[in-house]
Amino acid sequence: MSYLHNIGAYFLMIAEMFRKPTKWSVMRTLILKDIDDLIIGSLGIVAFISFFVGGVVTIQTALNIDNPLIPKYLIGFATRQSIILEFAPTFISIIMAGKVGSFITSSIGTMRVTEQIDALEVMGINSLNYLVFPKFIALMLYPFVISIAMFLGILGGMAAVIFGGFGTLEDFIIGIQMDFIPFHIIYAFIKTFVFAFLLATIPSFYGFYMKGGALEVGKASTTSFVWTSVVIILLNYILTQLLLSS
Amino acid sequence: MIEVKNIHKSFGDAHILKGVSTTFEKGKTSLVIGQSGSGKTVFLKCLLGLFSPEEGEIVYDGKAYAQLTDEQKRTLRADIGMVFQGSALFDSMTILENVMFPLRMFTKQSKSEMEERADFVLKRVNLEGAHHKMPSEASGGMQKRVAIARAIVNKPKYLFCDEPNSGLDPKTAIVIDNLIQEITDEYNITTVINSHDMNSVMEIGEKIVFLKDGLKAWEGSKENIFKTDNEVVTDFVYSSNLFKKVRQMYLEEKS
Predict the structure, then answer these.
(1) Nearest chain A residue (CA) to B81
(2) Which ipTM value was assigned to this complex?
(3) What is the pTM of this model?
């Protein structure tokens, strides 16, 4: 029953988030702050992970192609497909559920514990609009992060090929250009927008409705990470089935 | 003036408020006192509209809160200042930004006008030179003063304080109590304070409402609370050794 209750409360929270908007001059500041915290602040870790995981994907692909009849440019092709279709949108989103999600849950949860949310409510401010809506808008820039992840992932793969001696640069470039289907990019960005929405709202839900003290803030952060990841994985499956299998 | 008429509030099977009625008058500092768990915080949250009572009504200057439209409630809330037990300062903002916050939300003043007003109230609560500190850099007493400054910056008609001197040393607690009293007189506002501190009662209790197990057990002035024979009240008031001695002296003097 508590799952059903939580699902209902989650959708009510989303509806409430769009009601009674906060004054634009204040909202603009909040959005810019959240862009800085959630998007700009994540670029470093995303760049680091993307570059090296891109390299690892390439090395593993190269090591598994030991048949001399399989052309070397397939390394580049496999790297591109793995990174664009799955690694950048999904894998990075799971990492972001840990990084950004925990930040959102703990910051809103701490505001709940220290009565800052009550202070907003007493002033007649729609606290959900004030706290969650700017995060939702900031995360609409999340595709920008994923674009960087895609670029750096492929760049990492290229570096691994060259420095690891798994093939030539020419073969890799032929591979990443081969049989390119533009819809795959659209598919990746559709997923990215959906995941951005989840990253903004599920951790906010667990932070906003938490009860207790500092210990519960920690527990809420963990729960929010678990559920954000679960929903991302489930929707990843559903969206892939809907968009790619025809 | 705030009239509270027979309010009941429950959470599940727990009946917290069991029909509390009282009146808080304009220009007076009223204290709601009682032991921990007596329903003080729930009572205050009902007054603030954070909890909706199942029965009874709360009337702000002739307007029943439950019957107001959302817009009217928002307007009313702009007239409410609240000092939370833990101060509830926004920790991502400086002290100045915290105090300016209600002005940013509810007025169309320019930045310089807002700063001027915030500066004025910060001086009023004896906080100068702390404008650009973060709340975490301020002491407990300073945080309480910032919370009071934020509560009064938009010239509220009603001021609510939830245990404003909890966690403070006795001297700072008296400073905070006196500050609230002065502000109530100066702005002629309706002030309601939740407390279980008898020092506050002695300092600023113009009207006292005593809650016990969700019921109003007694109400009166600070002078009368030390003379009452109501056992529930005397048990609470004279629970400390110091007050027990005072009571003994009073009874000896009386006999």
Answers:
(1) A123
(2) 0.83
(3) 0.86
